Amino acid sequence: MRAPLRALLARLPTYAACGAAPCAGGWSDVPLWDAVAALQAGRATGERAAALRTALAAFARVDASPAFARGACPEIDYQQPYGGANRLKTLETDANYVRAALLLHDATRDPGFLGKARRRYAALRRRFFDARDGLYTVYLFDDGAACRRLPRRTFASVNGIMIWNGLELAKRTGDAGYRAQAVATARALDARLDDGAGIFTDLQAENDVVEPLIEAMLRVAREPGGGFARAWILRNAAAARSARDARGDYGRFFDGPPPRGAVTAWQTGGGFALEIAAAALAPDAAVPPARAGRQSRAAGFTLGARPVRLLVRGAGVALYGTLGERCCELGHARVLVDGVETFDRTGIWQNKSSAQRSLPQTLLFAWRWPARGTHALTFLPGEANAKEGGSFLHVREVTIEK
Q1: What whole-number distance in Å separates Cα of residue 254 and Cα of residue 272?
Q2: What are phi and psi of 35, to 5 degrees?
Q3: What is the pTM of this model?
Q4: In this predicted model, what pLDDT tens digit does every residue of 272-284 receive, in sequence order?
């Protein structure tokens, strides 16, 4: 296990010190993901000194740059230097900033890193947290005059990292308020992001890495009163047995059928992390069999300017199409299940492909209900914004679980 981590550590980029030109290129979230990866790999392999050098340079690439902390809310970093074309600020950057600062505090014992983590965490609560929903959205647009949240874009990754950040801040500071916020976010996620059968449904972009959420829920499961998180992990792990293909790859949807075609690391990693977490909590539990049900297939459809309504008679539905059909970002559609819009308003973001290529036979959307019945799915044109683009949906096949 250590050999791959050593190879990963050796291959992480070496970030230049932040001057004028070097800090003008690249996105802000990538160095911070790399800083976290370096410190975790260093801890696992024992190569702490090399990991610390890499992480410090990666963290400084963003923290010391004049290119990101700008706009109407400069306490939050732009994803692209000086805002780029879309003026987007993403919690992928700033949640990892907090986590990297906390890990650097561990590695250096420098209280300055703890101060940075606390200040940025407070800014994230103000800017990204939606008190009505109890969850963090991932996108914020800053046009230089005002900062505007894009509501209900609930990345699993950033909500998981913010849960982890709250628990770690509580441990380091003795402030129980951080822990209360973390547990409340975990409970909100448990309550709001499931399908009709009570299984977590990841409706954000294909690049939404679910592993940080699994890691966070495992942490909460081991906290006093964390039984709900333990149940969440075991329930989802049991369902995910039906989302694994013959090669052993998990699909993005824990309650969906297994993937047919190529599946990216972003999509499949969550299922593997989920099974590891479940084994840690209940090592002697019987492994449930994969769900085997009769299926029927129907022709697909294209969404234009008018809504499309699909009647489903069964216990579950799966929609297949080409991920990144108009590669590789802009184009999504809203989804209503039995007249209620999915909590994550992205719905189906078909054209987002982190692999930067079109991937046919991709499972675009899956939903299950507790029992067989008659249900309606309604697809609405996507509401245009600078990150997700306008409307697009081309479903090539519909599969209904009888």
Answers
A1: 11
A2: -60, -45
A3: 0.96
A4: 999 999 999 999 9
